[in-house]
Amino acid sequence: YRTISRKPSCGGSACSFSLSQSFSCTASTPISCTLNSWGGWGSCSAGSCGYGTQYRYRGIRTAASCGGGCSSTSDRRGCGSCCPSNCVWNGYNSWTTPCTATCGTGYQYRYRTLRTAASCGGSCSGSGTDTRSCSNSIKRDCTLSSWTGYTPCTSQCGTGTKTKTRSVITQATCGGTCPATSQTISCTVYANKDCSVSAWGVWGSCDQTCAVGRSYRYRKMTSAAICQGTCLDPLQESVSCGMVNGGCAQNCNNGACTCDPGYKLNSDGKGCTALACPKPTASAYCKAGEKCYKTTITCADGVAFGKTCILSCPASYKLVGSATITCQSSKVWSDHSTTYCQLNNQNPNGITLSSSYVNELSPVGTIVGAFVTSDPNPSDTHTYSLTSSAGGKFRLVSNTLVTAFVPNYETQPHSYAVAVKTTDQGGLSFTDTFTISIRDINEKPSSCKISSDKVRENPYLATAVGTLSALDEDAGQSFTFTLLDSANGRFKIP
After folding, report:
1. Which residues does residue 363 pair with via DSSP β-bridges, in sequence order?
2. Integer CA distances (angstroms), 83 to 6, 44, 86, 87, 298, in order
3. Are 82 and 119 in contact (CB under 8 A)?
4. Is 363 helix (H, G, I), strand (E, B) or coil?
5. For the whole model, what pTM was predicted?
6. Which residues are CB-contacts of 22 (< 8 A; sequence separation ≥ 6)?
7. 343-358 pLDDT tens trace
């Protein structure tokens, strides 16, 4: 197929060519038809109301071939709405009897029911009730019940009255009469009668909220004693009530139970349950320079408030710090942040020497100082050895460092290095190096000289013979001189 893309205009010729073309073919594959779109729905067959059917149609655009199928070219659906229907009444039943008036004008009624209710907007006129007037003029006396028994005598201790009564069953009509409905006669009674009381009232509230108290109930006297009757029944009684401490496990305040810090109130509102701390964890604290291990925490009785857990250490370690922790009211364990397991025997960690110098020219065996060891285990004992003795110039006597030579400040080094090792009874040791200083002392001069030992004869007084000088190993010394023998005053040192 093809279509005209532009129609002729201004006297142009109509299109003379064909808009379709066909040719024969042979195919073994079925080809279904193609259909146009559906048209609009037609009118409803029911008319203005009621229920009917609507139809719509579509055309075949291309016919099926080679045995192909073709879908339906028509479609239908239900349509319409209900028609208004008025209600339908059943007939009236008989008039009611008797007339509502027994003397004069009254009414009678009759009733009917719906057979079919109105629907789809239909109406329903009329009523289910019909009324008509009626009248009666029959004179009729009232009808009475039987007499009751006489009431008790109004006096229980002397003369009184008693009464019997009857009631009107049907009122008199149209001038009918009605006899008396009560009759009273005199009576005399002389009987002692005790008072009577009412039933007990309910028990009142307990007069104590947090202790054992009393609850009361009361009753009233309903009739007094007659003649010589008595009235011995009590109008009040009480019973024990309440509980010690209001039944509270710990504290009671105006009947309300509360718990001490560290406890929470149970759902029964009475008991208290200890609060629980979280599972305790060991501190990672370790004192500097020590070999430590975390503590083991054992809570045999649980982790509730007030419970105590034990801190312990493995073999070869001892506990330093708190041996127990307690769950506090704040649900926090007592402090154990600095508690740890310390190795039973730890290395010594320091050596001190009481003195680190010796005077020059001190004899062999002179004490330099005594060694003291610092040890995390204060009860340990220690032995000492020199790992370096400065070439044999020092030796140890127990924990005391002594000289093995005679030091000379002027001819030898001024200091020496010695290394000492301290070892505890468990074989753990610590080594440190100390510098031993040689202290210079003032030595005596080794000799005394004079620059001249001659003087000319007949010299003047105070003529200088010579200048005195001294030899001394200590450099930089100054000297003073004294004459021990002046040759009977012939010489002097100015």
Report:
1. none
2. 55, 14, 10, 13, 91
3. yes
4. coil
5. 0.35
6. none
7. 778 888 899 999 999 9
